[in-house]
Amino acid sequence: MRSVPNAHPTKWSAATVIAIIKKQEYMGWKILNKTFKETYKSKRKKSAPEDMLIFKDAHPAIVDEETWNIVQRLRETRRRPERIGGEPNPLTGVLYCADCGKKMFFKQGRTGRDKTHQEYVCSSYRHYSRSCTYHYIRVEVIENLILETIRRTSEYVRRNKTEFIERVRESSIIQQEEILKENRKKITQSKRRCEEIKGLIKKLYESYAADKIPEKRFTELLTGYDTEQAGLDKEIEELQTAVDGYNSDSVRIDKFIELVERHTEFKEFSAVLLNEFVEKVIVYEAIKTNGVRTMQVDIYLNYIGKFELPETEQLQVESEKPKGTKKLRRDMTAEEIERNRERDRERYAKKVASKKAAEEAERMEILKGTSFEKRPEENKVEKIAS
């Protein structure tokens, strides 16, 4: 630290650590033309990301590219320490609202002396005058969903590796074809707008030459058209590069398989498991039907995106659960919930009846051999008869 260079020689400031984490050289890359000077007299250097020259695998790497990318993705979101516990929640920056696309906001509190509640809500609802809906989901629920998704997908990969590769490639082709179609549509629209701007600029020059508009107005309009055309040209170039680089085999399936083989057990949720497996989680608004609250949650895994398990595999995984495992209420249908309620009513009625029978037996045992041995009903019948 600059303020105390000799007091703590092994204590680094946050700025130093961030500068180290941002360096691409640790991936084995060689970076040239990172900065430039406007003139040889200038003492200030400016960054020039578009002019950088990158040479990959120029020297031995300290960290792999996947780990470096995960760290940069984590640094995009600021994580505040929790008021209760003192540690930031690892799900911050991973959960997104399905309606507005904003990141979910983490909130917590206490419901009693020792009980705490933790949940995520839409940040647009929380911070921007409730421009979106609540999208409330508990931390415990989303952690269990993520852990179950990772576990099921990993088991399916281990059992059916060939089928898994084929399914991922098929879904990747469908998704990329949709993206390709959308990009081509945007390119066509941008090119049409560029042609319109050229015609407008031509008419603008003719009007200015004929003294139909003042020079100030002419300059303002020309500047606006030039700025718009420059933005369209850049957008067309980026979209065309994405279209030219289209490849259905770009999904790194082998990376995900290697990741699955590296992890053997998925007993509990952890930040390491989350960052290595999950890219993002999309949370939809809850729907309440017949008193049952259901919510759609899409989990996108690293390297393969959103992967849907086949129905047969889901049934097989559910049948392998231990017999003593109780099915959660959120996983039940409306008929199953009503059936469970009826069963609970019958159990409660039997419990009350057995309790009353035990009390009556205990009472008869106490009154045995006395004049009060008979039941109250029999004494009442004799009294009425007399």
Number of helices: 11
State the strand order across the main sheet: 5-9-12-13
Category from helices, strands and their pairing:
alpha+beta
Largest sheet: 4 strands, mixed
Low-pLDDT stretches are none
- Radius of gyration (CA) equals 34 Å
Distance between the termini: 104 Å
> What's the total number of strands?
13
Task: Tell me the helix content.
Answer: 40-55%
Average pLDDT: 81
Strand fraction equals: 5-15%
Net shape: elongated
Q: Helix and strand string, N-terminal first?
A: HEEEEHEEEHEHHHHHEEEEEHHH
SSE order and pairing:
Blueprint: H1 14-22, E1 30-32, E2 35-36, E3 46-47, E4 53-55, H2 65-75, E5 95-97, E6 104-110, E7 116-122, H3 123-127, E8 137-138, H4 139-159, H5 161-209, H6 215-244, H7 253-262, H8 271-277, E9 278-283, E10 287-289, E11 292-294, E12 297-301, E13 305-306, H9 311-319, H10 334-366, H11 376-385
Parallel strand pairs: 5-9
Antiparallel strand pairs: 1-4, 2-3, 6-7, 7-8, 9-12, 10-11, 12-13
Helix pairs in contact: 4-5, 5-6
How would you describe the overall organization of this protein?
The protein has a four-stranded mixed β-sheet with strand order 5-9-12-13. Strands 6-7-8 form a three-stranded antiparallel β-sheet. Helix content is 50%, strand content 12%. Helix 4 packs across helix 5 and helix 5 packs antiparallel against helix 6. Strand 6 and strand 7 form a beta hairpin. Among the domains are: 76 residues, no CATH class; 186 residues, no CATH class. With 386 residues, it is an alpha+beta fold. The termini are far apart. The model has no long low-confidence stretch (mean pLDDT 81).
